[in-house]
Design brief:
Strands 1, 2, 3, 4, 5, 11 and 12 form a 7-stranded mixed β-sheet that branches. Strands 8-7-9 form a 3-stranded parallel β-sheet, with helices on one face. A two-stranded antiparallel sheet has the order 6-10. Strand 1, helix 3 and strand 2 (about 85) form a beta-alpha-beta unit. The protein has 13 helices and 12 strands. It has helices at about 20-30, 50-55, 65-80, 90-105, 115-125, 195-205, 215-220, 230-235, 250-255, 285-300, 300-310, 340, 345-360; strands at about 55-60, 85, 110, 130, 150-160, 160-165, 190, 225, 245, 260-265, 270-280, 330-335.
Length: about 350
C-alpha cells in the first residue's frame, strides 16, 4: 500500500524499552477484541443532571498535570459536571488499559493521548464509544477518525528544536536537523525517550526525509534521553543542556510567558507533529459526563480555554494561540497513514533505533 503524504498543509484542515512493556502492550492492543457492552447512540447528547448523578468523570491523559487540573476546574465551573484526572503516558496506560479491558471495565472514562495510532487501534477493537460533538465540522479529516465521533484531535503537538540564547548564540544555533550532527553538540542534545508518542511521531515522519544513517550518526553525538519535554526545557533554561532536539511547542509558549530567552527553530525540511486525540472508552461508567466533557473540549470555547492554558496549536482554524507562528507558514508533518503508523513491527523498529541512539 502506498504511503500517504504525511505533510499536513492544513489548507483543508484537512512513544532502554516502549519501553519494552509499553511496546508489548502495543502489540497486545493490536490484537482483535470484542467489547460486549452496548454502545450509546452516536447522536445522543450528554445530560447534565444524569452526569452529576454518575459522579466525577475520570480523564486519563499524558499532558502537564497542572494544565489539566486547571482546565478541569474551569470545565466544572462552566458545566456543573465534576471531573478528575489521572496522568498516564502511553508506556503506562497501555498495560493498564489491557488489564482493565480484560476485566471488562475501565476506571477511566476518556483517554487523551499523544498517539493517534493507539486510539485508532482502540477504535478498530470496538473499545471506543462513538459520540459526534456538535462542532465536529470544525475538524478536518486529518484531525479525527475516518468515521467522525470515535476520536478527535484536541491539540496538535508540534516539535521544533529549542535553545536558550544565554548559552547558545543565535548565529551558532542549529538551523536544520542535519546541524544536530555537528560535534560541537556532542552530549548536548536532548530528546524524550522511546516511551513518548511524540518521539515515535518524530522518527516516523522524518525517517524517509533524512539520510538512512542519520540516526546512527546522531547516536555518535551521544544525545540524552528525558522522560518529559518539561525536563528538557528545565535543563535548557539552567544551562545544563544546549539544544532541545525535539521539544513540544507548548514549552516554548510557557517559556515566553515566563520571559525566558528561549528560541524555537522550525527547520524548512519539516516540523514533526502528532495529533493528540481524545476518545471515550466504550466501557465508561459515566457516559453522560464523558460526552459533556468531549463536547466542551472540542467546542470553540473549550479549545480557546485549553490551548491558551497549555500553549499549543488547536486543530481548529478559528482558535489562535499567542506567541506561536502562524501554523500555515510552517511545513508541519503529521502522521496521517494510521494503518501504517500503528503497526507493532514499525514501533518495535523505532524503539530499537531510538534506544540505541540515546544509549538506553
Amino acid at each position: 500500500m502506498k504511503r500517504r503524504n504525511e505533510t499536513n498543509e492544513r489548507k483543508g484542515l484537512s512513544r532502554r524499552q516502549l519501553m519494552l512493556a509499553g511496546s508489548a502492550a502495543a502489540v497486545s492492543l493490536a490484537m482483535p477484541h470484542v467489547v460486549s457492552r452496548a454502545y450509546a447512540q452516536a447522536s445522543a447528547f450528554g445530560n447534565v443532571e444524569a452526569a452529576k448523578a454518575e459522579g466525577p468523570v475520570v480523564v486519563w491523559h499524558g499532558d502537564q498535570e497542572a494544565d489539566i487540573v486547571e482546565y478541569l476546574k474551569i470545565f466544572t465551573e462552566k458545566t456543573g459536571v465534576p471531573a478528575t484526572q489521572q496522568r498516564l503516558l502511553p508506556g503506562q496506560a497501555l498495560p493498564k488499559l489491557e488489564a482493565e479491558f480484560r476485566a471488562g471495565q475501565t476506571t477511566g472514562d476518556l483517554y487523551m493521548t499523544s498517539d493517534a495510532g493507539i486510539m485508532e487501534n482502540l477504535r478498530l477493537q470496538n473499545r471506543l464509544l462513538r459520540y459526534v460533538p456538535k462542532e465536529i465540522s470544525a475538524y478536518g479529516p486529518d484531525y479525527r477518525s475516518a468515521e467522525p465521533g470515535y476520536w478527535t484531535t484536541y491539540y496538535i503537538n508540534a516539535g521544533p528544536m529549542m535553545y536558550d540564547t544565554r548559552y547558545v548564540k543565535e548565529s551558532e544555533a542549529p538551523k536544520t536537523w542535519m546541524d544536530l550532527l555537528d560535534p560541537r553538540w556532542k552530549g548536548q542534545v536532548g530528546f524524550q525517550n522511546s516511551a513518548a508518542g511524540t518521539s515515535y511521531g518524530f522518527w516516523y515522519v522524518m525517517r524517509d526525509r533524512l539520510p538512512k544513517d542519520y540516526w546512527d550518526k546522531l547516536g555518535q553525538n551521544n544525545p540524552r534521553a528525558y522522560s518529559s519535554s518539561t525536563q528538557i526545557l528545565q535543563d535548557i533554561e539552567r544551562g545544563g543542556l544546549m539544544i532541545g532536539g525535539r521539544v513540544s511547542i507548548f514549552q516554548y509558549t510557557k517559556a515566553v510567558r515566563k520571559k525566558q530567552p528561549v528560541k524555537a527553530v522550525y527547520p524548512e525540511l519539516g516540523i514533526p507533529a502528532v495529533n493528540q486525540p481524545v476518545g471515550i472508552f466504550a466501557t465508561t461508567k459515566r457516559p453522560n459526563g464523558a460526552k459533556i466533557f468531549t463536547e466542551f473540549l472540542l467546542s470553540k470555547e473549550g479549545q480557546t480555554i485549553w490551548n491558551n492554558i497549555q500553549g499549543s496549536y488547536s486543530a481548529r482554524r478559528d482558535v489562535k494561540v499567542e506567541y506561536l507562528p502562524d501554523i500555515n507558514t510552517l511545513n508541519m508533518l503529521v502522521p496521517t497513514n494510521l494503518e501504517e503508523y500503528r503497526k507493532p513491527e514499525l514501533r518495535r523498529e523505532f524503539v530499537g533505533i531510538w534506544n540505541k541512539m540515546t544509549g538506553l
